[in-house]
Claudin (Malurus elegans), 211 residues
Amino acid sequence: MASGGLQLLGFVMAFLGWIGIIISTAMPQWKMASYAGDNIVTAQALYEGLWMSCAMQSTGQIQCKVYDSLLKLESSLQATRALMVASILLGLVGMFVAVTGMKCMKCMEDDQVKKMRMAVFGGVIFIISGLAALVATSWYGNRVARAFYDPYTPVNTRFEFGSALFIGWAAASLAILGGSFLCCSCPRRETSYPPARGYPKNASSTGKDYV
């Protein structure tokens, strides 16, 4: 029962992490304009994401523009996109695989060992999915930080971490932790002993010695 509860907890955490990765990928707030300069006065907030850039006016109106051409984007941004999309697809596969191996599901009840191995395999896929999202968000955040501290970057074009990055980091951690819990349901190897052999009874002594 304890392993079943740990398995269910791991699946819920991994599923929530997968949902968070989707939300983070779709959000445009991957980086936001920094107003570190004393002489900067603006009536709008600028955001940039993986798919679009947005400007929010002081009145609350938001205007977004989708990036026109994929080939004009930076290679690092394209790689971040690819990693996040791959993370989402891996999470989807891991969810279906893990559901098949859950103890609360009736699928594959006739072979419990294979059923538990499916749950473990789903956990491994969730871990890979979380790692892909963690690499993508960390890489993007590192680029934002390097550009911010670069003395050659104009003050009015500096950006800071957006809320999508923090959601992505939290979601990736949940996916990795949930996948690890699923892997803890790995079936233990049982030592198989050969069947005990019945020893033949000693033949009754006839009292005769044979040479």
User: Anything to note?
Assistant: The mean pLDDT is 80. Residues 4-27+75-184 form a domain with the Butyryl-CoA Dehydrogenase, subunit A; domain 3 fold (CATH 1.20.140.150). The radius of gyration is 29 Å. Residues 112-149 form the longest helix (38 residues).
